[in-house]
Task: inverse folding
């Protein structure tokens, strides 16, 4: 009976119903075009010419070459349907209305994000190369760099969970949470219990969760349940059964802000596999970072931008900025710069931060990433650094969470290893950390995967650091993790079967569309 109950629940789940509606839309379009093409040669010619025009237009745009190649092949293989499908849901640019909503909010908050020139000058005096990297984030993403911010690296997820509960208990004014995935269980239920008590104490609590991320983990209209508890809640970009490109623009961030002076971000969602409460893909290795101090303001603004994305609220953001003498309350811990990456601005901030770290390294770059699906720019940057004698090491999972994504990740091994990049797989299970550390001085911890979705389509965030405590903590954790990883050699890459190589090649070709 248990099996049939689960099957019934799956069949009538929101995910399946929405999926069926999407398939129905595609079927209607295909049948409609096929019918018209079979009976009217002019319609066939029209759709064929439309596809040809789309290919010509697509290859004239400032898109990633891999993205353009993948869609060009799809359209040429399906010349009648391909062009129309690309117009409906293929472009990686958001709709104008969707982009205008977010860009309008960002313009309103830019006045709240003013860089202190004295801090930038001080960083420049310490390290000109680091200042150049920081200035890019300030100028392009509008997130300043700060001092007076303590950093603490938290890995694995169990450590973040304990520190998060400790800090939530201290909240006196407000708590903001923004997550890609929330799932009922040990982790979320424990956090929710604290949130409920804090609401009763008069603390303002707001929660944002991504609708696609929580499609299988939370009941439909879970936000209404939270509101009944006194928690303000919003669903980011509600998922609808429509062939619309904006459905690809998900909120992949994981942000916690407590009273404006304490913040968390990183790869860890609020679900039990992230704290190894149960084994899903072997041992789950993840990472987060806790900030305490002035730099938390960047995370606060990111949250408020997302909160006001679809439903404007006429509120003064300054009210959430603590009136604290930062220099007295928080010790100097290097330079800290939380940054956001949005698909709305046409700038791949997350990828540029990564490439800056790699290309400006003098001795080493150590990277943790769950997915190694890089575009030509990142591949070239990694390869050139290794060829220049930089010690480039990358740790990826040994046990996959998505088999097809893992196949594509492994498809990049051979070329990178030939260039001199050292690749390791996390033998105990799945590594979900997204961390970079460079030359004992620079590092970043965040939500940004090395794949096309994170780099081009999702809302993401990270924390760039120079000479902060967490930088060396990231390095120490990386080296300790290497002890239980297996190195991948060229011989390992050559051992795979012809069928596996072919599958890797095909999936790699269409990786930008996954």
Result:
């Amino acid at each position: 009976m248990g099996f049939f109950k689960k099957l019934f629940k799956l069949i009538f789940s929101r995910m399946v119903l929405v999926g069926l509606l999407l398939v129905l839309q595609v079927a209607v379009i295909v049948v409609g075009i096929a019918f018209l093409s079979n009976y009217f040669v002019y319609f066939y010619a029209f759709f064929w010419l439309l596809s040809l025009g789309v290919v010509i237009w697509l290859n004239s745009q400032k898109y990633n070459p891999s993205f353009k190649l993948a869609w060009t092949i799809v359209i040429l293989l399906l010349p009648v349907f391909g062009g129309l499908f690309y117009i409906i849901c293929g472009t990686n640019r958001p709709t104008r209305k969707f982009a205008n909503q977010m860009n309008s909010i960002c313009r309103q908050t830019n006045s709240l994000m003013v860089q202190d020139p004295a801090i930038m000058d001080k960083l420049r005096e310490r390290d000109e190369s680091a200042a150049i990297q920081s200035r890019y984030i300030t100028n392009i993403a509008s997130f300043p760099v700060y001092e007076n911010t303590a950093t603490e690296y938290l890995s694995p997820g169990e450590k973040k969970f304990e520190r998060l509960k400790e800090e939530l208990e201290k909240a006196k004014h407000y708590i903001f949470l923004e997550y890609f995935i929330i799932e009922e269980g040990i982790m979320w239920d424990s956090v929710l219990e604290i949130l409920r008590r804090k609401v009763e104490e008069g603390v303002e609590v707001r929660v944002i969760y991504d609708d696609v991320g929580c499609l299988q983990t939370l009941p439909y209209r879970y936000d209404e349940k939270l509101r009944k508890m006194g928690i303000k809640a919003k669903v980011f970009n509600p998922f609808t059964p429509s062939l619309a490109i904006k459905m690809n623009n998900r909120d992949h961030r994981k942000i916690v802000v407590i009273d404006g002076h304490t913040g968390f971000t990183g790869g860890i969602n609020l679900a039990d596999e992230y704290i190894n409460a149960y084994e899903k893909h072997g041992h789950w290795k993840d990472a987060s970072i806790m900030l305490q101090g002035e730099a938390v303001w960047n995370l606060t603004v990111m949250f408020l931008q997302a909160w006001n994305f679809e439903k404007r609220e006429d509120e003064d953001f300054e009210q959430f900025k603590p009136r604290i003498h930062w220099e007295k309350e928080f010790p100097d811990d290097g330079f800290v710069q939380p940054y956001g990456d949005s698909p709305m601005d046409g700038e791949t901030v997350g990828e540029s931060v990564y490439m800056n770290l790699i290309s400006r390294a003098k001795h080493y770059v150590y990277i943790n990433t769950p997915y190694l699906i890089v575009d030509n720019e990142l591949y070239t940057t990694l390869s050139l650094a290794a060829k220049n004698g930089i010690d480039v090491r990358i740790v990826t999972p040994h046990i996959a969470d998505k088999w097809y994504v893992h196949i594509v990740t492994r498809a990049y091994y051979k070329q990178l290893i030939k260039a001199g990049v050292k690749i390791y797989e996390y033998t105990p299970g799945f590594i979900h950390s997204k961390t970079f550390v460079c030359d004992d001085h620079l590092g970043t911890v965040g939500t940004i995967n090395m794949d096309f979705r994170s780099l081009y389509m999702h809302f993401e965030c990270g924390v760039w650091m120079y000479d902060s405590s967490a930088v060396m903590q990231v390095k120490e954790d990386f080296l300790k993790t290497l002890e239980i990883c297996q190195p991948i050699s060229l011989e390992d890459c050559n051992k795979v079967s012809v069928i596996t190589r072919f599958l890797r090649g095909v999936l790699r070709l269409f990786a930008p569309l996954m």
User: Anything to note?
Assistant: The mean pLDDT is 87. The longest helix spans residues 14-39. The two ends are 36 Å apart (CA to CA).
